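Bumping my old thread because nobody answered last time. Still need a sequence for this structure:
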């Protein structure tokens, strides 16, 4: 008597275990059909129809059934073992699930190259500090990585064993299997905006201005890109290595949209090649695609990493992904095995203006929810000026909002960016910066007019602070230096301070004798004050991180926001040498991860009420995991 031949079953097993996914069975249904065929006797080594009938005994079929059952168990194990290298047919649905991260940073998310671990930023279990967390896709819980307080911009080593990140003005790395972080290098600008790591153990990162490279084993970072100010470039962001480990892609942001976009650079040459007109963080998939965001949607574009060219049909693989219109950053990442993680949401989350008293008790809401930033309270405290994105052009424009009614009026609608509104002391006009000429310029508009008057122009950024109460000076900065722009006469701006440490949000004291501002010179963003115009007698007044300082109208109190969103108060004893007391927390705002480089709150002159731009959506969207994003191309 003959049964189903062992070679037939061996063939099924060998095909299941084939090293090349293209040589395996393409679905479980194929395997089941093959086993059914064997069980029915079609897989036996019979030679005639008559012989086939004689050998189909009960005993033989039982033996085949047991063999098939054992093989089915083997196939199940194989299916689990190959989960991270799936090969699906067009009629199969994609496999996806969600990971809840209720208090996490919206954007800081990274998946390991092997597709097994997701890293994200969330609050530490026992403090308000952000730390890195790891969530294995095969587990249901995440764990924090000790020693990663204040981390930003996580990125993976190519072997998936280590995470790089920025913290305390340094590039750091940590082994995910255990241990404490170690410093790779000091960053001259004291911040890490994004990073990437190649097989040769080289890290390329952005400090928010240019790209630098350093050995992952440590060393001195060196710049590998320079800003072309003749083309209006202001920053190089989001580097990502291509498979050869020598070329990389990065985003160029600037005042001229014609020159902004995605470029390919090389460790071996200063030459670069324009790839896309989109400004976004990118992920290259070994399936031959670039993934990036455009208009808040997640796109996939066929890409040849050798020729550095896109081609073919652009596909939308997710209708919406959380993104920042002004920077192009979006919450997504792709692993080498085609696993995709992203956070669904609109292109910029709406916020709601709401009043709070000194105890943190909320009261009236102002206007409708909208995306806005750069809050500036008018001198009579009847209106607020804000910057908002234009949903069609994707550029920022200025609005004023009546605080008594919530009525909003568009101030500017130029095709370029208009941002950083600053009230004139009489409350009749606004100053702001714009990139409408291909350069940065400071403009002034009288409310009710349609004419913008150019005050000063520069090839470098001119981000505005506040106007002095006497109207003589307007503060601005370019990222590293703070200037005072004379408003009464046409003379050069006063350079108050300059260093490689980022500086932001310079605000005049009521008497014009002091300037409060943000700086990272201590390794973290803190609030400093300095005398004006000498800018000596500098001192740090915040503790534990903070930014966006506002003065009380009588000069007896300075407010700022902590890194965890607490409203802080610093008492001041006036005099020729004012004394700044210890900061104290007034209340926790709904902003648990405030921006700190653009005002999300303002304070009344008496210091008794605070208008805060709070999230209109209070729940954080979970992270969506798709085990093979290429299935989304067929949807």
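Sorry it took so long. Here it is:
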């Amino acid at each position: 008597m003959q049964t189903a031949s062992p070679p037939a079953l061996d063939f099924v097993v060998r095909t299941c275990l084939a090293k090349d996914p293209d040589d395996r069975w393409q679905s479980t249904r194929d395997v089941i059909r093959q086993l059914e065929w064997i069980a029915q006797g079609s897989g036996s080594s019979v030679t005639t129809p008559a012989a086939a009938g004689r050998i189909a005994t009960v005993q033989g079929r039982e033996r085949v059934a047991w063999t098939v059952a054992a093989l089915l168990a083997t196939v199940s194990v194989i299916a689990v073992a190959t989960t991270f290298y799936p090969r699906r047919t067009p009629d199969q649905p994609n496999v996806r699930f969600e990971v809840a991260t209720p208090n996490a940073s919206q954007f800081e998310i990274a998946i390991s190259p092997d597709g097994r671990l997701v890293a994200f930023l969330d609050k530490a279990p026992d403090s308000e500090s952000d730390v890195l967390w790891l969530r294995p896709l095969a587990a249901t819980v995440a764990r924090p990585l000790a020693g990663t307080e204040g981390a930003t911009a996580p990125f993976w080593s190519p072997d998936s064993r280590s995470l790089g990140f920025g913290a305390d003005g340094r590039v750091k790395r940590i082994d995910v299997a255990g241990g404490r972080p170690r410093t790779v290098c000091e960053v001259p600008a004291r911040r890490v905006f994004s990073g990437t790591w190649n097989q040769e153990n080289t890290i390329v990162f952005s400090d928010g201005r240019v790209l630098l490279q350093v050995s992952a084993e440590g060393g001195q970072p060196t710049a590998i890109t320079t800003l072309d100010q003749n083309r209006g470039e202001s920053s190089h962001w989001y580097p990502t290595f291509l498979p050869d480990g020598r070329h990389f892609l990065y985003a160029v942001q600037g005042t001229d949209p014609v020159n902004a976009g995605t470029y390919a650079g090389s460790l071996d040459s200063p030459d670069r090649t324009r790839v896309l007109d989109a400004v976004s963080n990118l992920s290259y998939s070994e399936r031959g695609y670039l993934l990036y965001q455009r208009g808040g949607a997640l796109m996939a574009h066929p890409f040849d990493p050798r020729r550095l060219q896109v081609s073919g049909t652009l596909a939308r693989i997710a209708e919406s992904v959380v993104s920042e219109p002004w920077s192009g950053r979006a919450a997504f990442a792709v692993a080498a095995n085609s696993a995709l993680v992203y956070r669904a949401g609109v292109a910029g989350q709406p916020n709601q203006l709401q009043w709070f008293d000194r105890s943190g008790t909320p009261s009236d809401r102002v206007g409708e929810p909208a995306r806005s930033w750069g809050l500036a309270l008018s001198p009579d405290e009847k209106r607020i000026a804000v910057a908002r994105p234009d949903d069609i052009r994707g550029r920022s424009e200025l609005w004023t909002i009546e605080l008594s009614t919530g009525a909003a009026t568009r101030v500017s609608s130029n095709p370029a960016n208009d941002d950083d509104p600053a009230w004139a002391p009489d409350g009749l006009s606004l100053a702001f910066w714009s990139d409408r000429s291909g350069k940065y310029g400071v403009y002034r508009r009288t409310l009710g007019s349609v004419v913008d008057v150019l005050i000063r122009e520069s090839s470098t950024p001119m981000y505005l602070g506040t106007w002095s109460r006497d109207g003589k000076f307007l503060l601005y900065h370019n990222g590293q230096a703070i200037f005072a722009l004379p408003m009464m006469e046409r003379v050069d701006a006063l350079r108050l301070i300059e260093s490689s440490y980022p500086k932001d949000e310079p605000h005049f004291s009521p008497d014009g004798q002091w300037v409060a501002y943000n700086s990272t010179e201590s390794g973290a963003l803190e609030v400093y004050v300095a005398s004006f115009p000498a800018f000596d007698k500098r001192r740090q007044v915040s503790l534990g991180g903070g930014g966006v300082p506002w003065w009380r109208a009588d000069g007896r109190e300075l407010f700022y926001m902590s890194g965890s969103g607490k409203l802080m108060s610093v008492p001041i004893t006036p005099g020729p040498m004012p004394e700044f007391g210890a900061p104290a927390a007034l209340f926790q705002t709904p902003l648990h991860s405030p921006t700190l480089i653009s005002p999300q709150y303002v304070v009344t002159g008496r210091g008794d009420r605070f208008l805060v731009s709070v999230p209109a959506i209070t729940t954080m969207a979970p992270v969506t995991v798709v085990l093979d994003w290429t299935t989304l191309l067929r949807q």
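The chain has three domains: 6-81, 99-347+620-634, 351-615. Let me know if any region looks off to you.
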